[in-house]
Write a structure and sequence with these properties.
The structure is a single chain. The chain has a single domain (about 5-130), classed as Response regulator (Rossmann fold, 3-Layer(aba) Sandwich). It is built from five helices and five strands; from the N terminus they run βαβαβαβαβα. The chain has helices at about 10-25, 40-45, 60-70, 90-95, 110-179; strands at about 5-10, 30, 50-55, 80-85, 100-105. Strands 2-1-3-4-5 form a five-stranded parallel β-sheet, sandwiched between helices. α3 links the parallel β3 (about 50-55) and β4 (about 80-85). Bound molecules: manganese (II) ion. Manganese (II) ion binds near residues 10, 53 and 55.
Length: about 180
């Protein structure tokens, strides 16, 4: 199976179109018809990308994008918004909410698939960058920790000597007492 894509779209025809299109390109598409289920379904499905309709009943795609971007488990998942409105400022609002990509309806099949591929590639690059940054950030900390550990073990015999003596002195008494 290919990469997993959660498709949140209230319109049945669009939902089928998006899912068929993604499956035809080797992706595993998971349809969500009701936006109110989107966050829970995202937690369960763990998608590599979310395709998010903006105009939906009950909850707007913008709200869902904000919710997902505020969610520790979902915030790294790229979101591609799909909207019928091409009004000025719409794209800015969608990007402000945290969506990484934006495609307007009616979609161009080619552009839709290209946008999905580009977002997945960009997300992979970000994840690799983050992993590399975490690795290089870890190294000095580990080195310091090892250095501290060495100093502690070197000092330990000096510190331990007097207490070992006193322990030896008391231990026989304890043992005698217990016996
Ligand atoms: Mn809709």
């Amino acid at each position: 199976m290919g990469q997993k894509i959660l498709v949140v779209e209230d319109n049945e025809l669009n939902l089928k179109l998006f899912c068929d299109l993604l499956r035809a390109h080797g992706y595993e598409a998971e349809p969500v018809r009701d936006g109110r289920e989107a966050v829970d379904r995202a937690h369960a499905f763990v998608p590599d990308l979310v395709v998010m309709d903006i105009q939906m009943p009950h909850v707007s795609g913008l709200e869902l994008i904000e919710q997902m971007k505020a969610d520790e488990d979902l915030k790294m998942t790229p979101i591609m918004a799909v909207t019928a409105y091409a009004a000025k400022g719409d794209e800015e609002r969608i990007r402000d909410a945290g969506a990484e990509g934006y495609v307007s309806k009616p979609i161009s099949v080619l552009r839709f698939v290209e946008a999905v591929q580009n977002l997945l590639t960009a997300a992979l690059a970000r994840a690799e960058e983050a992993a590399a940054a975490a690795e290089s950030a870890d190294q000095p900390v580990e080195a310091e920790a090892e250095a501290e550990a060495e100093t502690e073990t070197q000092e330990a015999p000096e510190d331990g000597a007097p207490s070992a003596d006193s322990a030896d002195a008391t231990d026989p008494e304890d043992e005698d007492g217990q016996a």
